[in-house]
Amino acid sequence: MTSTTEQFADLSATTLLRFATAGSVDDGKSTLVGRLLHDSKSVLTDQMEAVQAVSAQRGQEAPDLALLTDGLRAEREQGITIDVAYRYFATARRRFILADTPGHVQYTRNMVTGASTADLAVVLVDARNGVIEQTRRHAAVAALLRVPHVVLAVNKMDLVGYRETVFASIAQEFTAYATGLGVPGWGSGGRPQEEWCTAIPISALAGDNVVEPSANMDWYGGPTVLEHLETVPVSHDLTACPARFPVQYVIRPQSAEHPDYRGYAGQIASGVLRVGEPVTVLPSGRTSTVVGIDALGESVDIAWAPQSVTLRLADDIDISRGDLIAPTASAPATTQDVEATVCHVADQPLAVGARVLIKHTTRTVKAIVKEIPSRLTLDDLSQHPDPGQLVANDIGRVVVRTAEPLALDAYADSRRTGSFLLIDPADGTTLAAGMAGESFAPNPGGGAGALS
């Protein structure tokens, strides 16, 4: 007999993969994305005609597939990617949302934006250049953001004669660096599990191993990029995460039909909620019991992330937008001293003593930056102590004191309820994206995992 857990796990299984591309300038990110779209028959006829026309105007014999994603005028003129370009496509096996992110160092914040919600990151390397500073930077950002899977796409293999030794050397160097990051998916002793990083030799320009297997690399027996994207496991194990329900809105119709109805509407951020379950409301700490769950106008006994539902509780207690409802047995602790790693995304610096707003789920409170203990140097994963401030594209450790308690999880446990934004209270500008807790996963073998 199928258990209740198995039933809702089956219902919640997704066929959607969110992935981001990253890599240095001219590594071929946009060309790879264009090749994926073109060879998977995901490009409309008028789009392709426009690309062919622009390519012909430039005197190019073949269509420049990078134009399918580089949409800004400055991007086309300079031949670079500046902003994150999102594209949606689908195959018979899976739906995809891809984010083509910039390669320049000064656009690291854009890469952070694209990878923050990704299930997988494709890190491109030019086979002629191998692993360079920006490759290490993007691998570190992927680890920092807890991206579950990484594909190392060794591009431009056609320019090195499709030599296996070139590919093997690059893959080995990247794996050695990644081992020190202590990323999610690493096994005991800091040894990588196969499912986190997959290396694939490709030529995005010629189409080798992107959608179709390459006839020029018979020594490679692994999947193409698209085949891997279609088959990589996207695990959303709802039972493994404690339930978190940020309240968005209190529903009190006070109508003749529902004179006493009081419900708390929102989207379940993680886990599973059941009727009859004891819950705690944070930050007040008041307790009650779930007596009803309304979803799409019907009462249900169970609900799970990311469903949007309305909860009804046994007790009429003071609950408002920004409160968090969680099972009493696994309720998070509240704190007013938030220790986190932040990616600074604003042009204005973030300095010690700055007054900010911190937005966590549906809750926004006043705060002050107490300390900036260190800034991370992504080139060698060293920590620069007491920098005093963070500037655009910096990644560093901060301690923020909030005016009211927040119920945060560690980002390593939940990317949804362990993340937050720091906002300028004067004009609403987003200053930094934050990840509560340790920046890198613990690594028993030393290295980057011990830096946080």
- Mean pLDDT, to the nearest integer, reads 83
Question: What share of residues are in beta strands?
Answer: 25-35%
Number of DSSP E strands: 25
What are the segments in which pLDDT stays under 50 over at least 5 consecutive residues?
A: 1-14, 72-82, 184-194, 441-452
How large, in whole angstroms, is the Cα Rg? Answer: 24 Å
Helices, by number, come to: 8
Description of the structure:
The chain is 18% helix and 32% strand. The protein is built from eight helices and 25 strands. It has helices spanning 4-12, 29-39, 45-57, 73-78, 108-115, 133-144, 164-179, 225-231; strands at 16-23, 85-90, 95-100, 120-126, 149-155, 197-201, 245-246, 249-251, 263-267, 272-274, 278-282, 286-295, 298-300, 302-304, 308-313, 324-327, 335-344, 350-351, 355-360, 363-377, 382-385, 389-390, 395-406, 419-423, 430-436. The strands form five sheets. Strands 7, 8, 9, 11, 12, 13, 15 and 16 form an eight-stranded antiparallel β-sheet that branches. Strand 20 (363-377) and strand 21 form a beta hairpin. It starts with a helix and ends in a 16-residue tail after the last strand.
Descriptive terms for the model:
about 450 residues; eight-stranded antiparallel β-sheet; 8 helices; disordered N terminus; single chain
Sequence-ordered SSE layout with sheet pairings:
Elements (H helix, E strand, L loop, with lengths): L3 H9 L3 E8 L5 H11 L5 H13 L15 H6 L6 E6 L4 E6 L7 H8 L4 E7 L6 H12 L4 E7 L8 H16 L17 E5 L23 H7 L13 E2 L2 E3 L11 E5 L4 E3 L3 E5 L3 E10 L2 E3 L1 E3 L3 E6 L10 E4 L7 E10 L5 E2 L3 E6 L2 E15 L4 E4 L3 E2 L4 E12 L12 E5 L6 E7 L16
